[in-house]
Amino acid sequence: VKRRLVLAEELLAAGQAEEACTEAEACLQGVFRDDPHTLAAVARHRLEAGKVAEALAAIDKINTRADRMLAQEVALLRGRALGLAGRHEEARAVLQPIVATYSGEEPRYYLAVSLQAVGAIAEARELWTEIRKRFRRAGRGWRRSEKRWFKLAGERLKAIEV
């Protein structure tokens, strides 16, 4: 299962989201069928492949009571899925609580996307600007891990200024 999930990550990095999703879904058998970490990985790959309803179905099966880190990851996945489904108010309600405690800019970015979708452009702009400021002040390790969100926030800022 670990090898299959690593292969799925590599396929995703190569831009083959559909194949990555297929590989990840193959892990949902036997004792791993209800494994929370495997379900979270499958849900993430389903989101990347555009399978929002299937991702939400997997997210709903995940038991996060014993793992706070996994609970934050699942909340992020749920927020992303709700946003992709057009349920931006629900996405906002899920993402807002984890923005302050999540290690990384991803929930802040997706919260801003949902804010923009409901017309709260000023709040979205503020979040994207904050992502860019934090990136510039951060150390090398943070910049390496958060580069994607820095670039995406910059693109969103340019798009709303035009």
Brief rundown of the structure:
The protein is mainly α. It has nine helices and no strands.
Describe the structure.
The protein contains 9 helices and no strands. It has helices spanning 2-13, 17-25, 36-48, 52-61, 68-84, 88-99, 106-117, 121-137, 140-161. Helix 5 (68-84) runs antiparallel to helix 6 (88-99).
In this structure, how is the largest beta sheet organized? none
Unreliable stretches (pLDDT < 50, length at least 5) are none
Q: Helical amount among residues, as a percent range?
A: over 70%
Elements, N to C (H/E): HHHHHHHHH
- The assigned structural class equals mainly alpha
| Overall 3D shape | globular
Based on CA atoms alone, the radius of gyration comes out at 16 Å
Average predicted local confidence, pLDDT = 95
> What's the number of helices?
9
The beta-strand count equals: 0
Percentage of β-strand residues = under 5%
N-C termini distance: 46 Å
Give the secondary structure arrangement, pairings included:
Elements: H1 2-13, H2 17-25, H3 36-48, H4 52-61, H5 68-84, H6 88-99, H7 106-117, H8 121-137, H9 140-161
Helix pairs in contact: 1-2, 1-3, 2-3, 3-4, 3-5, 4-5, 5-6, 5-7, 6-7, 7-8, 8-9
